Amino acid sequence: MYVPESIVRELINYRDIDRRQIIDDARAHGRYDKIARPLVVEDLAQPIAVDYTSAGVKVSVKVSNLDHTDRRRLYIAGDLGLEPASFWLTERGMPVSVSRWKGLFHEANVRCADVGMPLRVHPHMLRHTFAVVTLEQLQRGHIAALHEQTAEQRGHYTRIFGDPLDWVRRRMGHRSITTTMIYLHTLAELEMETRMALVPDDWEEPPAPPNPLASNTDVPQ
User: Fold this and answer.
1) How is the chain split into domains, by residue range?
2) What does the alpha-carbon distance between residue 18 and residue 30 come to, in Å, rounded to a whole number?
3) In the predicted structure, residue 194 carries a pLDDT above the cut 70
4) CB of 172 within 8 A of CB of 120?
5) Rounded to 10 degrees, what is the CA torsion of 52, 53, 58, 63?
6) Each residue of 43-66: pLDDT tens digit?
7) Taking CA 200 as the corner, what is the angle to CA 194 and CA 203, rounded to the nearest 5 degrees?
8) Cα 184 to the chain's mean position, in Å?
9) Are 220 and 212 in contact (CB under 8 A)?
């Protein structure tokens, strides 16, 4: 996911300061020790979680196969004990639930309304924004890379790196490219910039055809 460098710095600060303090406080109160059947990732190099059935049988589970509900049960085994695998945590050190995320956006909308700002957002808008911004940036890079290449090189480049729209389709989890194409309407400005960029610098407007009515020839009345 492509984000500005300033946002990355803010995320690192949250991880190293706020999130670390929240986790330390949760450990001090023994909250993670009370988690029923956590899915524990023992090796960060392996996206495998360990689960124990009600009979105490150890089972390995691929993280990629977990839905959003089970992902909230993911914990990492560290030297100091368990900590949530989720990046964003509540003040109690627990993963943020779907309902809580919706509540955060609702509270933000209310604060905006209170100061007279006509702005309303919702969680799904983040997904939409990711798709549009990523597609635009990939398309710009794709066009720039193809501009200096021959037809053979362009074909080779496309076979290796694929199409930007298909790249976004896979990241969004769409089965059909038709679903992803709903984001194309937002790229109308980029399309025009692309078309203008393809116009050669030495292009001149062709002369207008002569107007027969503007000639000196007598026109029958």
Assistant:
1) 14-95, 123-197
2) 19
3) no
4) no
5) -60
6) 888 889 998 776 677 889 999 899
7) 125
8) 16
9) no
Give 114-166 pLDDT, tens digit per residue.
999 988 888 888 888 888 878 777 777 766 666 676 777 766 666 666 677 78
DSSP string, the chain: ----HHHHHHHHHIIIIIHHHHHHHHHHTTTGGG-SS-EEE--TTS-EEEEE-TT--EEEEEGGG--HHHHTTEEEEETTEEEES-SSB-TTS-BPPHHHHHHHHHHHHHHHHHTT------HHHHHHHHHHHHHHHHHHHHHHHHHTS-HHHHHHHHHHH--HHHHHHHHHT-SSHHHHGGGGGGGHHHHHHHHHHTS-TT--PPPPPP-GGGSSS----
Length of the chain measured in residues: 221
- Assigned token pair, 30: 């023994």
Cα 141 to Cα 125: distance, rounded to the nearest angstrom: 24
Tokens at residue 114, please? 């209170």
Percent of the chain at pLDDT exceeding 70: 72
